[in-house]
TrEMBL record:
GO terms for biological process: amino acid biosynthetic process. The lineage of its organism: Bacteria, Pseudomonadati, Elusimicrobiota, Elusimicrobia, Elusimicrobiales. One of its GO terms (molecular function) is protein dimerization activity. Residues 3-96 form the Semialdehyde dehydrogenase NAD-binding domain. Belongs to the aspartate-semialdehyde dehydrogenase family. This is Semialdehyde dehydrogenase NAD-binding domain-containing protein. The active site is at C105, H203.
């Protein structure tokens, strides 16, 4: 029997990963590992752990597992490690990529909206401002949020991750570099501003996208609706409606007031599902189908 192990089973992503893996129809055994458990040989290990833990565990287990799927940002920009959203770049996974990274949750929402349009429009610039849910910061942040007097209560905090020497946060730099890697557009200009808001679950982004061509709004909506797990809605969709669902929702598409080659829109999606566990499950499914 094939085996898939979840390492970090007690965390937000680990718990969601367990529920997601149970949805897979092919027969395989799920094994779960907490902080002090020894990791047994596996066909696929899914690391639902923070960067330092993934950095330590991935090399330790590499001779015991065929493939490792890492949910942290530790290896995302490492050359030779594919950064995969199965709807977009499943081709990046091969028998020779034993380590696969799942992208940043906010970046995932952005690239889900960009990928269907990319074959039809030459993007020159993209700007987004994020409205990121508390659950994106893991269970400690969620516990803090539920403690009376939390800084995050009734607030929005424009600092996620750590401030880098150039003044951008680590989260903002993920938005830039991960987008370029997934889209295979190394020169795409991505401007971002990431903000934690007092929403328990589901991230949102306000996006402005500029292309060389003028946008045809009806074509854009059709392209989005034809893409798997993506829906354009004429009705406003908020994080409340997106929570618990596997769909990435886009709404409020409009052309720029002055520039027909610029569009503005709003994206919302469940950061624990498409932004993490669902994407991880889709990678596992692909590995089970093709390579394990
Ligand atoms: N939350 C999101 O929306 C999201 C989205 C995309 C990616 N990610 C990434 O996914 C990873 C997990 O995030 P999270 O939100 O689930 O964080 P979390 O809630 O803090 O969970 C992390 C888990 O790792 C466990 N752990 C620590 N050391 C371990 C070890 N040596 N062996 C096994 N387990 C160990 C912790 O165990 P204890 O319970 O004992 O402390 C905890 O349960 C992070 O890298 C995060 O950046 C998160």
């Amino acid at each position: 029997m094939k085996t898939v192990g979840i390492i970090g089973i007690n965390g937000m992503v680990g718990q969601n990963m367990l529920a997601e893996l149970k949805k897979i129809n092919t027969p395989f055994e799920i094994k779960t590992f907490g902080r002090n458990d020894e990791i047994t040989p596996l066909d696929i290990a899914v690391l639902c752990t923070d960067n330092p833990v993934s950095a330590q565990i991935a090399p330790q287990i590499k001779d015991r597992v065929k493939f490792t799927v890492d949910m942290s940002s530790e290896f995302r920009m490492t050359p030779g490690v594919p950064l995969v959203i199965p709807e977009i770049n499943a081709h990046a996974i091969t028998p020779n990529t034993p380590l696969i990274a799942s992208p940043n949750c906010t970046t995932t929402g952005l690239v889900m909206s960009l990928a269907p349009l990319a074959p039809h429009y030459h993007f020159t610039e993209v700007f987004f401002c994020s409205y990121q849910a508390i659950s994106g910061g893991g269970k400690k942040l969620l516990d803090d949020f539920h403690t009376p007097g939390s800084y995050y209560e009734n607030n929005c905090v424009p600092l996620i991750g750590s401030v880098q020497p150039n003044g951008h946060t680590s989260e903002e730099l993920k938005g830039l570099y991960e987008t370029r890697k997934i889209m295979e557009m190394p020169h795409l200009k991505v401007y971002c501003h990431t903000v934690r808001v007092a929403v328990e679950n589901s991230h949102s982004l306000g996006v402005t996208l500029k292309a060389k061509e003028n946008f045809d709004l009806e074509q854009v909506k059709k392209l989005w609706n034809a893409f798997p797990n993506l829906v354009y809605s004429e009705k406003v969709i908020t994080p409340k409606e997106a929570s618990g669902l596997e769909t990435t929702f886009i709404c409020r598409l409009r052309r720029d007031v002055e520039e027909p080659n610029i569009i503005h829109y709003f994206v919302t999606f469940d950061n624990l599902l498409k932004g993490a566990a669902m994407n991880g499950r889709q990678i596992v499914e692909l590995l089970l189908e093709k390579f394990v």
